[in-house]
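Quality-control log, excerpt.
Job 1 of 2 completed; input and output follow.
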Amino acid sequence: MDYLSDATFLIDLWREGRSKGAATRFADEHGDAVVAVPWIAKAEFLRGAFAVGQGPAAERFLGQFQTVWPNEGTLRVYAELYGELRSVNAMIGPHDLWIAACARECKVPLLTRNAEEFRRVPDLQVVEY
């Protein structure tokens, strides 16, 4: 795995289709890269897709991405990050906290359009596409 993606990258790839938006350009320029997605980002994406009647197509689209599931290490990183960010009053959203914990646990860069929020997380490499 070369990158971990949040839901913004998935949403942009989905919306862009075959057009050459930023997410599609990134994917084309990094064609050999393996992009994985935390379970919670996949759930966010699917929630939106099912809400607009596109669930089955979205499930097929997501099939190209490996799912990253939490493990004991992820739970610890999540808890540590929560404490670190809370102590400096720099909290991020609860789903984003899980995504950041997964990226830190996997030691891979996080691919996102939401770089401002994720840059609050110490020792997290953020790649804005």
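Job 2 of 2 completed; input and output follow.
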Amino acid sequence: MIVTYLKAQPVPSVVPTTSYESTEGGGAGATASTPARDTPAGERAGVEGMLAKYACTACHAVDTKVIGPSFRDVAAKYRGQKGVEQKLAEKVRDGGSGVWGPIPMTPNPSLPDNDLHTIIEWILGLK
């Protein structure tokens, strides 16, 4: 029944970055806010487009935990660590589990290097 219901729903033109968990200040269906950093609007739209294109937003949002951690939580956890870009690139490509809980991150081996670098740089720049 659930699958039939979901298939009957219209497909959104833009994948929202939302969390359906009850969070402080947000509540169900709270939309993630725009990142607090000095990024030109065009670059933000480009990265956010990549996040949707590669289905990152299916599990992650900027400010709230969805299935995986928020991008801000990732930035905070890894800020200042040596070799973090390579470490995160490997995590995105290979997937894995145990760092943020038992739910595994699916591997994304076909994500182009340039886009992967841009996404990781953007995430690590979040404040």
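Post-run check on job 2. The mean pLDDT is 78.
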